[in-house]
# Entry
Amino acid sequence: MITIFHGDNTELSRSAFIEASDKLHGFDVLRIDAKTADENQVSQFLNSLSFISASKAICFTNFFSVPKAKLDKIIPVLASTPNITILIWQDKQLTLAQLKPLPLAKVELFKADNILYFCLNQIKPKNLAKFIVYYHQIIDSQLYDLFLYLLKNNLRKKLLTYSPFSPEIIKKTYLQLIELDYLNKSGNLAISKEIALERLMIKLLS
# Structure
């Protein structure tokens, strides 16, 4: 059985993937990602005798980020072993074309709340008033962590494409977001993470 966890709500999809992985008690588990994936490794694992358990499972991180040449070799190997447990997590929402090679897979889609995208769309010069309205709704909905993740991705994309902001301002804000996240996770943030992020965005949007 193949289960695919994906969607733009990467926090929830990742949590569901980890939760499913943690339930594989007594399984002989192969954990691989896009960087280490190799069809020979997968085939050898599936065909070798296990001294741990009669049941095998594969937990695959960012399976669909594997180069297509390799992916085209791995998919038939997985499809030929229908009785094995395979968990796949992808750090984005997949297209129907990407899912098509695994038609029998159970697909778990995790969508982000629309309010997140409404808020991201308000990131424009001199647009603080509209942004703050949506930002407070995000905080009230306890979506801070997911919003911060999407916000960092959004600013990183603006560095690579057109933006009404100068590249210097976008880069500075992006680096400040990374620092904020680090200070918060290390317990060294002097104020609440929500207020700290709001102050950064006020500087950007005022």
